[in-house]
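Bug #77: duplicate submission created two jobs. Keeping one. Sequence:
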Amino acid sequence: MIKKLDIGSRQYTIEYKDLSAWGYNYYHRKLIQVSKNADKHEKAKILLHEALHGVCSEYGLAIENEEITVRILELAIVKLFQDNPKFTKEFLEATQK
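Kept job's structure:
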């Protein structure tokens, strides 16, 4: 499981815990928490969702209804990658450091 995630110029610590929600992003603490009770597929989506909140924070995006916007982006990105495995593979290969 991923323990660190770079978002912008900050490195977030990832924790997997018993939570009352699926996930949390504590921007000021550079901490993302993901429910340890979620399955592997859900954990990946939760981490993407919380990372997108981090992107909003790190890049100063003041979005009205941020939760709804992040949820739509999460669903759209997951679907884009699932529906286009060749694109996903080539994108990841082309953008590796």
